[in-house]
């Protein structure tokens, strides 16, 4: 990537540009950004120059995931929507390929157009999904420019009053751009801001959300995903507003009822009902998204009945504790995942842990007793305890029983492998005269077999006297034993 117009300066600038591309490598990190600052300050350097593939410096920086460099280039007027690339890629698309959420966000804030397609007709979000960068898809799907919200803070048409008081725009914007749609999490965000903790304020916000929802559906490029999200948050605001009026400005009782579990399996019925009702109340019933959602809700009910679990099984089925899979006591909080999935575009619930209380991703604090439910922190654990305490001990017993069974099964497998090994050994010693080549072919052909054999060999080596010393797999044994 070149910043240059003057041929004579090319080589030195090229070197710097190349260094810029390696920003994240060891020490020269700061030095390179500073050099780029100097470079961008020069009159003969164009921030939007193109290389032979039609790529701008911003595209390069986005592709390589250089956060600071992107920031710098944007500050210097880099065109976020430059579309001269040979395959029609934009800086946003490159950011998606890099998988760096913050760069994607930065591009969006700088006004990146999300509807542009590349030469094969893919948008940035579709490209991100294609390469498995689901977090980037989520960022794009949940982006809502502040200006679009600020529009409602000015009186429109014949109105003398704005629909949204200026002071509410910031707090509301924070909520509508959130990617965690768990109702409890949204109530946390409301509680966080005293301006929102007011029945009247919430009503006004809700009305604005309904207007945005309508706009999303009626504009030329209809956006049902965003419309559904606005509608859903609006439903939560209405609920909170009603509760604030009834319950003397308290939202805690509402949180409690959302977390309260059903007798027997602790399934939060009220929460589930609330989400379902919100989806059903979506005013545009002809949309494909709604139909999809309704269709995916139906099987949830069935799965729940089948498994006796209160979720669609994403977490349950991928849980590290296979035990949770068909455990009627499973408490993972993914009731809202159908909706979340549809709205945020998150499909990869795999390998992610979600807080039982608020649905926050990346929760890693387990209940110390049952070790089956996870929370993002102590606050959430405390909030959930009134519901969880009824099943915690039962869950603990179940887990212990399952662990015991698993360890028995493991021992059984080990004994089996040991026996197989012994018979293999006797065959091998018979064939030894024919050369060792055959044995090594077997080992190379299947590494899992090899591992089993190796660890079994280690186990055997401990117990048995060395009949096996001549075996070719002996040197690996200590390693296998450590596993
Ligand atoms: Zn939490
Ligand atoms: Zn517990």
TrEMBL record:
Record InterPro entries: Ankyrin-MYND_dom_contain_2, Ankyrin_rpt, Ankyrin_rpt-contain_sf, Znf_MYND
SMART domains associated with the record: ANK
Keyword Hydrolase tagged: no
Biased composition (Basic and acidic residues): 402-423
SUPFAM superfamilies: Ankyrin repeat, HIT/MYND zinc finger-like
Superkingdom, taxonomy of origin: Eukaryota
Residue spans of biased composition, Low complexity class: 450-460
Record has Zinc-finger as a keyword: yes
Ranges occupied by ANK repeats: 53-85, 87-119
Ranges for region Disordered: 402-483
Keyword list, A-Z: ANK repeat, Cell projection, Cilium, Metal-binding, Repeat, Zinc, Zinc-finger
Subcellular location: Cell projection, Cilium
Gene3D superfamilies referenced in this protein's UniProt entry, alphabetically: 6.10.140.2220, Ankyrin repeat-containing domain (1.25.40.20)
Ranges of residues in domain MYND-type: 355-392
Pfam families reported for this sequence: Ank_2, zf-MYND
Protein's name in the database: MYND-type domain-containing protein
Lineage of the species this protein comes from: Eukaryota, Metazoa, Chordata, Craniata, Vertebrata
